[in-house]
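Quick one: structure for this chain?
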Amino acid sequence: MLERHDELIHHDILPRLEKVEKAQMDFNTQVESITNQVTEITGQVKEIKSSQTNLELTVMKDGQETRGILNKFVDHYFAADKQRLQTERDVIHVDERITLKKFSTREKIVLGIVGAFAGSGGVLGGIAALMQFMK
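Got it. Here's what it folds into:
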């Protein structure tokens, strides 16, 4: 019986035990490999987060610079446009003054002619002439 136990242990139990130990070693190797991969991925995630933060800051700075440049351009454009409008207003104002002066001169001439007719009885004579033509 002792021999049978010995034979059972050597032929049946020990090979099984070796298989279990080998499987446990393989399992431990796989766990270690997975742990290393997780550690590596965690490091990569940290690097990605850091890069994302740096990219966000860069984009924000570029956006601020772009807005600054656009604001300067818009201010310059509106200033140039305002100067052009002011020049146009000045030209229109001068044209209006010249036109008013022309009207003043014309009005003086017309008033002089009308005054001459009215003062010398020319209006009454003109009305009488019209009445003669109508008859």
